[in-house]
Amino acid sequence: MSGGIIAYDGGKAVGDEEFGMEFFVSGDFSDVFRMGYAMEDGLQQLYLILKEMCDDSEVKALLGRLAKFEEGHKAMLEAKFPGTAITETASLDTLEGGFDKQQIIDHFNSRTATLDDIIQLGMMLETQAFDLYNRLAVKENDPESKEFFTFMANEERQHLGFLSKEYDRLLL
């Protein structure tokens, strides 16, 4: 990302286009609300765990802000789907974008997280979630679910915008 389009060296994304999709089509969740809520909750838990592992006050503040973003998403989901019981979030190990929460925690157990690390982690997770929600919106036939996935993709785009500004600030 450093250097922008001028520094682009032609690299391309690799991997299966279906990466992460199995989580959403596996039938583990009774509806898209519960699936989305579980992912937001899982990511919020990750950010809070990493915050507890960290000593740097600036990194802690960023992790707290990111956790609040996910809390805000959960509140928006509850408002968008009033009266929907939330019972399927207790042991979510898969985060937005299909990443494994424990692998990320293990990675940061072995090293001290810097502000750069957390911004890049957040950008990776939010980019994957944005991409995943967009792909789900394209594949979805149910209009309400399609609208939900599009809404969530736009939310992830806003998070990316925030993280991009934080990264720019860090680089200056």
| Count of all domains | 1
Q: What would CATH call the architecture?
A: Up-down Bundle
Low-confidence stretches: none
- Main beta-sheet strand count, sense and barrel state: none
- Given helix and strand content, the structural type is mainly alpha
Assembly level: single chain
User: What is the helix fraction of residues, given as a range?
Assistant: 55-70%
Shape: globular
The CATH superfamily label reads: Ferritin, core subunit, four-helix bundle
CATH topology: Ferritin
Question: Averaged pLDDT, please?
Answer: 79
Which features would summarize this protein structure in a list?
Ferritin, 172 residues, single chain, mainly alpha
Describe the protein:
The protein is an all-alpha fold. It has one domain (30-83, 91-171): Ferritin (Up-down Bundle), CATH 1.20.1260. It contains six helices and no strands. It has helices at residues 21-25, 32-53, 57-80, 101-109, 115-139, 143-171. Helix 2 runs antiparallel to helix 3 and helix 5 (115-139) runs antiparallel to helix 6 (143-171). It is globular. The model has no long low-confidence stretch (mean pLDDT 79).
